Inverse folding.
């Protein structure tokens, strides 16, 4: 009896909450879920004129064709190699930078450094590619002029197969390490200062303090960021590579996203491109779910 | 860290550390100083490689030229529009979504259903061609809406705001509820005023995302004169060959103009003008992202 009486009231109280959600639900249904349904064309002999409902279903044929393409193995290898290198350096460099910045005691000086290193994170790869194309040029680039001063011959950073992926990793780390250090700096301020005093009394030097207090203090944050970055295993960095690569470096620089783009937009192979995209999303899904599970277990991190 | 004694080795370390940080920080901003110097130098000084960090033969010809170019100004205007409208749409939807989802399951029984509904879109996305098709079928290609609606709710930023709202003391809402306030009133008058840091953070991130987006402009706009600034720069500065290859509909005066623009100084001026809005919000970004983002995302 009492339960029955409470129910209409509860719905009345909850209805406005549902109403608030409706605009977002509609847009997400159309543009996110709609495009998920659209991935069905990966299983079709799709053409734009017939549309999703008029095209012939051909099962896994597109995937067979995709994986029999001569370049696909190399593309997957490039993607994983570039993103792994970015992931590893993308953890180490920010941690080292945060540790060194943390040794600076004067806030004004510290803030000046921070202001300078955060900036590249907020600029688009369009701007940065415009700059890097210029300063990395083998003939007139500032970087090669500087290397010339110490007797190094000009390096074609963006046009050489060996150098291209290395350049991608270095410029990506350059863009992101400053902002990446924010979270470690926050973790460093959370370390109990009494631990350092106790260690000093025990006669521990700076290096021992770093190894035994500072690093364990930020370890959970390092683990968390490592685990979360696993979700990006197939993200080689489309914006960056698309704007810096050229056919000369496809063998070492082409990644899944650029491959999908050329296939879909430039060659109009819509179904094949979608199959490649679906393969990427499927593998990424496994990594994302695994990374969230691990993050929850090791660091108590929950996204909601 | 608290330091009491200062040994010789410590002093040497501090000097080394300071030098290291100085070099690293300079590496981060010198490319932009170089860009600025090039944009204010004469064409001959740039082409003979004389310009490094200070303008040579200072002049503003490149900026005069760019600001008089109809194509640049048009692209700038489209970017301003998509950024202003896009940020408004993003923030309104974030607030309207984060508030209901910040309720506990006992207050809002459908909470988990809706939460998963949104979180799934982080886990899995449809990809390039299917998204393009939806944009095409909904008839928003070649309009500003194509740049705004597909990403209207940035789910990760919404979760940051939601987590922040959940961390607020329950008493706030309870007091409002007892006073007879409805949900909308509670949200507007009680919750939002105390969410300033996290709202500022997501607003700024939305701003940066919209301002920096180029990819959507490239695939959803057929004509170059519909491109937002970053897409325009992508074709003009990064990829001029593709620009000519793809553009039969480009007007003769634009093609003419491109020949002139290829000078390094005008490229530099355009890139620098595109950085200015980011520089304008940069102090606020620095102030808010640490408080808003770190707190929101790390708490469970």
């Amino acid at each position: 009896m009492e339960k029955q009486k409470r129910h209409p009231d509860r719905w009345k109280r909850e209805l406005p909450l549902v109403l608030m959600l409706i605009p977002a639900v509609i847009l997400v249904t159309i543009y996110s879920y709609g495009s998920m349904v659209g991935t069905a064309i990966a299983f079709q002999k799709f053409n734009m004129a017939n549309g999703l409902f008029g095209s012939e279903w051909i099962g896994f044929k597109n995937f067979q064709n995709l994986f029999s393409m001569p370049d696909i193995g190399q593309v997957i290898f490039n993607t994983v190699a570039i993103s792994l290198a970015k992931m590893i350096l993308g953890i180490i460099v920010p941690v080292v930078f945060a540790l060194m910045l943390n040794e600076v005691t004067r806030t004004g000086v510290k803030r000046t450094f921070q202001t300078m290193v955060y900036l590249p994170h907020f600029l688009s790869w369009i701007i940065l590619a415009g700059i890097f194309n210029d300063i990395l040029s083998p003939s007139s680039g500032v970087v090669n002029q500087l290397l010339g001063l110490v007797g190094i011959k000009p390096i074609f950073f963006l046009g050489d197969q060996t150098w291209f992926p290395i350049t991608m990793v270095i410029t990506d780390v350059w863009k992101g390490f400053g902002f990446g250090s924010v979270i470690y700096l926050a973790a460093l301020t959370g370390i109990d200062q009494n631990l350092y005093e106790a260690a000093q009394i025990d006669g521990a030097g700076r290096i021992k303090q770093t190894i035994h207090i500072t690093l364990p203090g930020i370890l959970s944050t390092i683990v968390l960021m490592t685990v979360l970055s696993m979700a990006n295993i197939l993200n080689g960095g489309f914006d960056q590579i698309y704007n810096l690569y050229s056919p000369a470096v496809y063998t070492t620089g082409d990644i899944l996203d650029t491959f999908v783009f050329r296939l879909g937009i430039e060659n109009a192979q819509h179904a094949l491109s979608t199959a490649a995209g679906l393969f990427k999303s499927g593998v990424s899904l496994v990594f994302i779910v695994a990374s969230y599970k691990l993050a929850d277990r090791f660091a108590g991190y929950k996204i909601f | 860290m608290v330091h009491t004694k200062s040994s010789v080795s410590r002093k040497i370390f501090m000097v080394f550390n300071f030098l290291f940080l100085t070099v690293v920080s300079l590496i981060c901003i010198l490319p932009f100083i170089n860009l600025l110097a090039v944009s204010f130098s004469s064409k001959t000084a740039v082409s003979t490689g004389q310009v490094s960090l200070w303008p040579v033969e200072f002049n503003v010809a490149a900026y005069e030229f760019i600001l008089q170019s109809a194509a640049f100004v048009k692209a700038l205007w489209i970017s301003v529009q998509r950024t202003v409208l896009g940020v408004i749409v993003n923030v309104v939807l974030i607030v309207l979504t984060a508030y209901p989802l910040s309720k506990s399951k006992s207050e809002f029984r459908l909470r988990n259903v809706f939460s998963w509904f949104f979180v799934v879109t982080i886990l899995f996305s449809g990809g390039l061609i299917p998204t393009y098709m939806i944009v095409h079928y909904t008839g928003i290609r070649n309009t500003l809406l194509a740049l705004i609606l597909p990403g209207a709710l940035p789910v990760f930023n919404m979760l940051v705001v939601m987590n922040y709202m959940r961390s607020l003391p329950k008493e706030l809402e309870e007091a409002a509820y007892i006073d007879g306030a409805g949900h909308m009133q509670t949200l507007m008058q009680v919750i939002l005023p105390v969410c300033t840091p996290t709202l500022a953070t997501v607003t700024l991130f939305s701003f940066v995302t919209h301002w920096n987006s180029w990819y959507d402009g490239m695939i959803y706009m057929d004509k170059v004169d519909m491109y937002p600034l970053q897409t325009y720069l992508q074709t003009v500065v990064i990829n001029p060959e593709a620009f000519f290859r793809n553009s039969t509909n480009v007007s003769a005066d634009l093609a003419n103009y491109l020949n002139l623009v290829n000078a390094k100084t005008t490229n530099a001026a355009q890139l620098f003008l595109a950085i200015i809005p980011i520089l304008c919000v940069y102090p606020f970004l620095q102030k808010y992202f640490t408080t808003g983002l770190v707190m929101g995302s790390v708490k469970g």
Observations:
- Confidence is low (pLDDT under 50) at residues 1-5 of chain A.
- Chain A touches chain B through 91 residues (CB under 8 Å).
- Chain A is about 75% helix and 0% strand.
